[in-house]
Amino acid sequence: MLDYIIVGAGPAGLACAIEAEKKGSSYLVLEKGCVVNSIYNFPSDMTFFSTPDLLQLGEMVFVTDAFRPTRNQVLHYYLRVARDYGLKIAQYHRVKSITRNGSSFKVLAESHKSLTGIFNAKKVIIATGYYDNPNHLGIEGENLEKVSHYYTEAHPLYDQDVAVIGGKNSAVEAALAFYRAGARVTMIHRGSGISDSVKYWVRPEIEKHIADGKIKAMFNSAVTRITGESVFVKNGGEEKEIKNDSVFALTGYHPDLDFLKECGVELRRETLEPKHNPDSLETNINGLYVAGSIAAGMQCNKIFIENGREHGKIIVCNRE
Ligand SMILES: Cc1cc2nc3c(=O)[nH]c(=O)nc-3n(C[C@H](O)[C@H](O)[C@H](O)COP(=O)(O)OP(=O)(O)OC[C@H]3O[C@@H](n4cnc5c(N)ncnc54)[C@H](O)[C@@H]3O)c2cc1C
């Protein structure tokens, strides 16, 4: 019987594992992909907005001369954290269910090697983030192969008609990268302009390209339908057909709320936050904790690496 099962090897899960390791508790991190799988799936050319010191875990200094580190530098750093702390991580193990078993928990996981693994622990920490679950548009054509909810590489978009849906950071950065790679980009956004939350050092470039007509922008607009050759966009009463090869619907993500509910965790009505005690991060289920961005429910930008990394100390340090 382990002291802790930690579900998810993102920054929050790793922070919990470090505290368990330092305390001498027995634990295992179950991760459905690789270490920091969400960050692995970020755009390959991205730069973090946080400085290295604010992404650091445990006592291991993130040494780099970059003011804002790149995805590759961050991946490299977190692998070093996992290796040098000797963290016990079972990669490629997807947790399917967490159930109470008397005073402990039974955790069921599937891996590509064994269909089912059963793990028993006194306490379970859910640190599964939100990045696996895009907010769908719910429109005809969304399931076409040319539609993606993730941007990873701009290179294949050269000489393509690309629609980017959304007006926040991810959409703006994707639009700029596609434009630089030689795509003809149209941004389509419900809002009346680029979001106020767009990074201050990115905003001038997108505004200039929109003003110069190099990137087309349709504000107060919504995509209503996607076909093989086009997207249909509604602006006011008018619907326009736009020639299109690829669609990037970058309209945000949400935590796996069904999984939380299946575990018996109750959600707050407005924010869909898992109900938890902020001083311990324990949910309404005794011994079941949330760590990292999942603790914020639908308010995905409320908890990020900088503050989610503190959750390990809150959960593990003050417990018996
Ligand atoms: C483009 C981009 C840039 C960002 N830049 C910054 C920044 O500069 N600074 C900052 O602080 N934050 C930044 N963020 C936010 C930050 O990445 C997230 O807040 C952070 O990754 C959340 O950490 P987490 O550990 O809670 O979740 P995640 O990093 O999402 O980790 C969750 C892990 O759980 C695993 N998992 C999910 N379900 C299961 C399951 N059923 N079984 C097993 N494993 C499972 C996933 O594979 C994943 O590895 C950025 C986000 C994006 C999208």
List the helices and strands and how they pair.
Blueprint: E1 2-7, H1 11-23, E2 27-30, H2 37-40, H3 71-84, E3 89-90, E4 93-101, E5 104-111, E6 117-126, E7 147-148, E8 161-165, H4 169-180, E9 184-188, H5 203-211, E10 216-218, E11 221-226, E12 230-235, E13 238-243, E14 246-249, H6 257-262, E15 288-290, H7 305-308, H8 311-317
Parallel strand pairs: 1-2, 1-6, 2-3, 6-15, 7-14, 8-9, 8-14, 9-10
Antiparallel strand pairs: 4-5, 5-6, 11-12, 12-13
The protein binds flavin-adenine dinucleotide.
In short:
The chain is an alpha/beta fold and 320 residues long.
Using brief descriptors, characterize the structure shown.
320 residues, FAD/NAD(P)-binding domain, 5-stranded parallel β-sheet, 7-stranded mixed β-sheet, binds flavin-adenine dinucleotide, alpha/beta
Q: Rough shape?
A: globular
Which spans of ≥5 residues are poorly predicted at pLDDT below 50? none
Q: What structural class do you assign from the helix and strand content?
A: alpha/beta
Q: Looking at CATH, which topology of the largest domain would you report?
A: FAD/NAD(P)-binding domain
Name the helicity range.
10-25%
Tell me the distance between the termini: 15 Å
The CATH architecture of the largest domain would be 3-Layer(bba) Sandwich
Strand content: 15-25%
Radius of gyration: 21 Å
CATH superfamily of the largest domain: FAD/NAD(P)-binding domain
The domain tally reads 2
